[in-house]
Amino acid sequence: MQEFLLAAAGGVMVANAYYIHPIISEVADGFEVSAATIGLVPALNQIALALGIFLLLPLGDRYSNRRLSIIFAIGQTLALCAMALSKSFWLFLFGSTILGFLTIAPYLLPAYASKRVSGERLGSMTATLTAGTIFGILLARTGAGFIAQQFDWHLVYVIAAILMVLTTLTLPLIMQGRRPRADTGPKSNYITLVMSLFPLLRAHPQVVVSGIIQALNFGIFLSIWLGLALHLTSAEMGYGTDTVGYLAGFAVVALFATPRLGAWADKVGASKARFRLAVVQMAGVALLWPFGDSLWLLIIPIVIMNTVGPAIDVTGRMTTLELAPDIRTRLMTGYIMLMFIGAGLASWAGTAAYEFAGWPGDAALALVLSMALVALSWRQARKVALSA
Q: Residue 184's pLDDT band (boundaries 50, 70, 90)?
């Protein structure tokens, strides 16, 4: 039960970055900015998250994950309030950037939970937490599109702030405090702790490769959905933000597929599973351009991508969480930092590609990223097979 409650809490906190997806055109119109300019909102949110992960997430190897999660959740709530009340684009952008910087708690949860399950259940546990994230993203994008269409996009962030208050109050009840340690040796200072990430990543290059692969995987997801929201609400397509949200609802397939694919990855191995999933995803991405003029045909690649994309992340996390418990949080820091740097760049690139070349430009960008993902996944799977 605790795993499911942690998954729900993580879903609420992660969802805050995804409300913008279906309503990005509404927000752009409200602030009277271009597609490339509004793309700065998700881009800086993701890059700030990468910076926050680098500076703050390593603290999870030293301080109580429970205490840190509560503190960061409070900070997210305040940032959401600023976004909900903003009348200026730059204040909204600032609030979103601070929100990204403080969205650390969801990434403390996998390391926290991994220390409380057996190695045989690592993939299953990781998949459960990932499914919670998927569910949060699903509700965020579907709900935001409907609320913005029926009422006002500011209300989306008011509701998000209320959900964060409830989540913050719940965290102390579902997370146990750190058990006292017998070790009384000297503790490293903060700078030493943060900078220790780099030698750890040098010693575990597979984590770096997994982070780059996930940067490409997440970059595909963000560039497509931001471009898709602009495409569907354009004058040519003529749909509302609620339609974008309904289309995002097809991500529900991942709720059922991800736990099963995580269990499958436990059996066949993370690297081999990741390569196979990457090939399937590339096939889906290749359909985006030719199917782009039909809402119904777009469902096919979207379902494919939503089925395998989260599972690719699960396999990447498995390569990190199977390592020594006392360094897992810092290694996960490197993995997630790389992921969000790539995601931030892809968020801006996706909206810029759409402004430059419309939907074909956005779809072409996603295909290039997908081809790179397959190539890296194949290389890593082959390397693991040769070393076995």
A: very low
Predicted local confidence at residue 373, as pLDDT:
96
What number of helices (H) and strands (E) belong to the chain?
17, 0
**What would the mean pLDDT of 116-144 be, rounded to a whole number?**
75
Q: How many CB atoms lie within 10 A of CB 333?
A: 31
Q: Domains (ranges, CATH) in the chain?
A: 2-173+192-387 (1.20.1250.20)
Residue type, 276: R
Take residue 66 and report the two structure tokens written for it. Answer: 């429970």
Three-state SS for 64? coil
Read out DSSP for 209-222?
Answer: HHHHHHHHHHHHHH
| Gap between the Cα atoms of 278 and 375, Å rounded | 9
Alpha-carbon distance of 347 to 343, in angstroms, equals 6
Residue with tokens 């909206």: 351
With contact defined as beta carbons under 8 Å apart, do 51 and 341 qualify? no
pLDDT score recorded for residue 161: 93
User: Which two structure tokens, joined as six digits, stand for 309?
Assistant: 């994309």
Give the Cα separation of 332 and 326 in Å (integer). Answer: 11
